[in-house]
Amino acid sequence: MRTKKETKKSAGKDRAINLKEQILSVLRQNRSQAFTAKQLAKKLQLKGDRYEKSLRDMLDFLIETDEISMLSNGTYRYNTKTQTKTGVVDWVSPHYAFIVVGNDEKDIWVHSSNLNGALDGDTVNVVVYMHRAGSKPEGEVSEILQRKKDEYVGIIEITKRHAFVIPDNRKMYADIYIPLDAIGNAKDREKVLVKITHWGDAEQGPQGKVTEVLGKAGEHETEMHSIMAEFGLPFRFPEEVEAEAKAIRNDIESEVAKRRDFRDIVTFTIDPEDAKDFDDALSIRKLENGHWEIGVHIADVTHYVTPGTSLEREAFARATSVYLVDRTIPMLPERLSNDLCSLRPNEDKLTFSSVFEMDETGKIYNEWFGRTIIHSNRRFTYEEVQRILEGESGDFAEDLRLLNDIAKQMKEDRFKNGAMSFETIEVKFKLDEKGVPLAVYPKIRKDAHKLIEEFMLLANKKVAEWVYKYKKGKEKNTMVYRIHESPDNEKVKLFASFIRRFGYKIQTESGKIADSMNQLIEDLEGKPEQFTLQNLAIRTMAKARYSTEPLGHFGLAFAHYTHFTSPIRRYPDMMAHRLLQLYLNAGKAPDRNVYEDQCKHSSEREKVASDAERASIKYKQVEFMKNAEQKDYEGLVTGVTEFGVFVEMIETRCEGMVRISDLTDDYYEHDPENYRIIGRKTKRIITFGDKVTVRVKATNLERRSIDLTLVNFPDGKPLKEPSKDKRRDSSKSRGGKKKGSSSKYF
């Protein structure tokens, strides 16, 4: 907690920042004019000697920083030596945002009053002011080029004269004004979807109208629909798309003569127990030379979904299926995903295949790619296959064990070549018929999962390699690659510095990072800080994306890699299928720019899907903890901020916050350089990775947040309540009503 002296100092700093922004705002808006100090004081309504001195001091400071100039007659004018750049708004707090320019340039700091109506994610032009060498550039949004979205989800608050919607989006710090004649059937405190009708500016916030009432806040269907609306996910397929899907004929017989026939070869699928869209299958048979022919067969989606159709346009727009906790938002209508294209057992199905001649060590002697027809003999669940791999009898047991042995050898070879072994822990929920979570548990990946993974990786890799090597004349191939670039060296060094606090180390030299990271993951196995540091290590890495540039996949240690094996749920796989068939037919490479734009769109939609999935998981975690037994939970500190510490409860993998205002035994100060808080009197420290005991204090379904009470400190000592005369008012949160938070991680 701050002392009075520190609080006074902080308030003085805020006043100085405000005065600076006020002066610059007046001078910017009147760039062709010059003002005396007296004229500026009048415009800013500054009265009294003290304020006049503050004004002159700030004017001197702005001259030193070259942001303004003083003319020979003693007047001041704005320094017009500026440049304009284009970037994307990252609205960090109610007070400021950064404009992310990219191209390794520094982000540009913009005060919220200078956003001029721009919102998070908007593409803008920003005027960059003069700044001293080494200082961060500052600027002002001069033009909004493209809005990221025009619909928001939030809770509506209705008064007699007007209404406001408080957005759920944590990076939307402006409430949306709603005229009473634009609220529709919404009632006070309901969740609604709002469309912006007027964007506002620096003086006035956005205005909108209610387009849909989602329901009572906190209810299951309301909140899941809120998440879908918040991330722009479709509720249903357009009628013309559904009609087009239903009209597709199942023309397998006419295709038999055009395809390689695998129907007499042992073939099976292995999928989750609740899966309905089976998009991959494996076949296996022994060849006369003692080798094995192993086929990776993928649903031939592009046979049914053709360019120029409504189905194609809708698949591209969605780009991916989205898996929320209680539902799937598919890329393709059910007629395709669960019927025509699903590789169901005991049915002839059209596929696109990668077929390999291999020995028991995984060595490949021949490969073949092309369109096929299969007949799956058996549908396995992962659990069934796992029991067979662990020794139980069952269908195709010998084949499954052979495939598992080959998969293990391929995995070992991958790691010898520099692949990384990151495996994030995902959570699953057991829901009742109303969607209420009854249990939360981690998804455990066993050999059955890894068997399928290795053969899918093989197919993806070999398709990418074949296309990369294919040449027709001197032209470059166009292909959709899944790329994962090398990590930024500065981020790796920062991570290495951080984990030294826990007694771990990694090599930061290029070429040694992968092996060093793998050793770290091995050293973390079973340790309390395992998942926390492993997740941070993943954040240090670059984000995988789609591109036509063959930049390789760092994490897998593949020079060329694509996504070929899940066309039912990923549009890039459909693109890869079409390009592969084009080159198999000796076709000419299409326009790379068209495919690059499609790659960018697919990467963006993948991120939206990931964010929505995380939001649904967070909501269910909060709901589960709301109804969970009131007891103490062991947890790990996963983040430290100026207003509290984030703690992940080990048993449930749910994260909440212990607010500094609730640590009533002492005054705690934030030490951001060392990711910790320190008690002023006791010198007690809570830092990243500490093991603590907590109890749930409150849950907020609307905000998807959990407040925790600290029971025991990292040293095992309980939190002691202060005497009544020393107790602070814990209702006065240091951040006030501040929405969002500073970054939890470095």
UniProtKB/TrEMBL annotation:
Alphabetically list the UniProt keywords: Cytoplasm, Exonuclease, Hydrolase, Nuclease, RNA-binding
The catalytic activity, as recorded, is:
Exonucleolytic cleavage in the 3'- to 5'-direction to yield nucleoside 5'-phosphates
In terms of InterPro entries, this protein maps to: CSD, CSD2, NA-bd_OB-fold, RNase_B_OB_dom, RNase_II/R, RNase_II/R_CS, RNase_II/RNase_R, RNase_R
Task: Give the main localization category.
Answer: cytoplasm
Q: Where is the composition biased (Basic residues)?
A: 734-746
Query: Any keyword Hydrolase?
Result: yes
Composition-biased stretches, type Basic and acidic residues, lie in: 717-732
Q: Is the keyword Disulfide bond assigned to this protein?
A: no
Q: What is its EC number?
A: 3.1.13.1
Which residue ranges does the record annotate as region Disordered?
713-746
S1 motif domain boundaries: 630-711
What is the superkingdom listed in this entry's lineage? Bacteria
Instruction: Mark the transmembrane ranges.
Output: none
Where it sits in the cell: the answer is: Cytoplasm
Function summary: 3'-5' exoribonuclease that releases 5'-nucleoside monophosphates and is involved in maturation of structured RNAs.
The similarity comment for this entry is: Belongs to the RNR ribonuclease family. RNase R subfamily.
This chain's protein is named Ribonuclease R
Q: Which organism is it from?
A: Xanthocytophaga flava
